[in-house]
Design brief:
The chain is built from eight helices and ten strands. The chain is an alpha/beta fold. The strands form three sheets. A six-stranded mixed β-sheet has the order 5-4-3-6-7-8, sandwiched between helices. A two-stranded antiparallel ribbon has the order 1-2. Strands 9-10 form a two-stranded antiparallel sheet. Helix 2 crosses helix 3. The chain is globular.
């Protein structure tokens, strides 16, 4: 596993973004882990987060693109922080763009924040996490309505590797449905592999009992890939 992925896993736990225990998700599922990207709140955290996203984008899509699009609301700071990190790490300037929830009819009018989109723009979509793919269903038509853009792919921070509508993960379903790449900085499989019986901040967060709980969760809700990996 790449060093930046290991650092990112530690970073999620240290930032109290990735927690282990007993949680009830919006879907009603009882999960042994929970991710809350809203816990990144400081300048230092956002700077580091942007760097991890930048490295993952570089790995998966290269830097031959024009615009980072972050869907409102959580995607807005992600697109800004990552555009800055790409400039800092690689010396490449990409534009950032986000949508508004409501169209503005005065001043800086329209549905977009940041850069406008134009025909031929190559776009990478950036989000915190995608569980069902619903956000892309909303984002895709917004992008296509603004210009004839070429969507290079989607990047999220964590692939939860849960079933979408079938046996595949939401990211796999997005890739099949829309025809562009859908990737994450790390997968939940990589998280379990790295943190199992490994101290993080002096504490083991995935011990034998927690790993067993995660395996039980994935027996019920895991995509085909994670079931092969962990079960």
């Amino acid at each position: 596993m790449e060093a930046y992925k290991q650092e990112f896993i530690n970073f999620m736990v240290e930032s109290d973004v990735l927690k282990f225990g007993e949680f009830t998700l919006k879907s009603g599922r009882k999960s042994p882990f929970f991710m809350n990207a809203g816990a990144y709140v400081t300048g230092t955290q956002l700077r580091r987060l942007g760097q991890y996203y930048a490295k993952a984008i570089h790995d998966h899509y290269g830097l031959e693109f024009d615009v980072l699009f972050g869907p409102a609301y959580k995607g807005i700071p992600l697109s800004v922080a990552t555009a800055m990190a790409i400039s800092e790490l690689y010396g490449v300037d990409v534009r950032y763009c986000s949508n508004r929830k409501e169209v503005k009819d005065h001043g800086d009018t329209g549905i977009l924040l940041g850069s406008k989109l134009k025909d031929g723009d190559r776009v990478v979509i950036i989000e915190d996490v995608t569980t069902s793919g619903k956000s892309i269903e909303e984002t895709f038509p917004i992008l296509k309505a603004q210009a004839d853009v070429d969507i290079k792919g989607l990047i999220v921070s964590l692939n939860r590797m849960e079933k979408g509508t079938g046996e595949k993960s939401a990211l796999e379903e997005i890739q099949e449905k829309y025809g562009f790449g859908a990737n994450a900085i790390v997968t939940m499989g990589e998280v379990v592999e790295y943190l199992y019986n490994r101290p993080c901040q002096g504490k083991v967060v995935i011990d034998d009992s927690m790993k067993a709980a995660i395996q039980e969760y994935y027996k019920a809700y895991g995509a085909e890939a994670i079931r092969k990996e962990l079960l």
